[in-house]
Fold:
Amino acid sequence: MMEFIKVNDYQAMSERACSIMIETINRIKNPVLGLATGSTPEGLYQKIIEKFNEGKVSFQDVTTFNLDEYVGLDREDVNSYYRYMKEKLFNHVDIKLERVHLPNGAAADLEAECQRYEKQIRQAGKIDLQILGMGINGHIGFNEPGTPFSSRTHVVELEASTREANSRFFPTLDDVPTQALTMGIATIMESKEILLLVSGEQKAEAIARLTDGDISEDFPASILRNHPNVTVIVDEGAMVLA
Ligand code: GLP
Structure:
């Protein structure tokens, strides 16, 4: 079931997501969180840090798995998702870094790395709450249109539109990696609960397709309609066409 929570703006989306994430962490013993990168969850992570500083949440017992990582970037590269997570969240809360997991995009054997990551997720049990953003083409994680719904953690070739959208973080478009490692769609769908965050007019068409379009591999996020527990927090900007 997909439940929509409509909010005014990005701040309200971030606050709502923050409450849900904290409620999950405080309710579950040894919670396992699935985390996302991109611009969308930045506000959520800021709010979480505020709540941590107020003593409202602790990450002592939290395990995390990120959705994806660029291929070819070292863990400490300014543009790696590992670095993003450290700077936007992990450095500011009491999480134990040994409980933090991201695929290693600098691994020599990428196929083996995908299998290792998938196994690590399985060993941790199910992801209790997976935070998701959505690309303008409906990608989740880095699962581009056409990715089989049955996919597990795998290597992907990034679409030109995705590289362009993410080039704002890099010096030039040529610096954006052409490949990434991502949890597969089947991996994401195994999470017990999914929280999809969508903000801004550039996502309006994607929201319209998510609500009205077919469930099809051409639009990866559409599979979420088959998940038993998905909450979509969407702001007015992203709702202009819906
Ligand atoms: C990126 C990430 C995704 C993210 C999406 C949307 O490429 N790999 O995990 O959800 O694209 O990004 P943004 O939130 O910046 O719009």
DSSP finds seven helices and ten strands in the chain. The helical segments are 10-27, 42-53, 81-88, 110-123, 160-166, 185-189, 204-212.
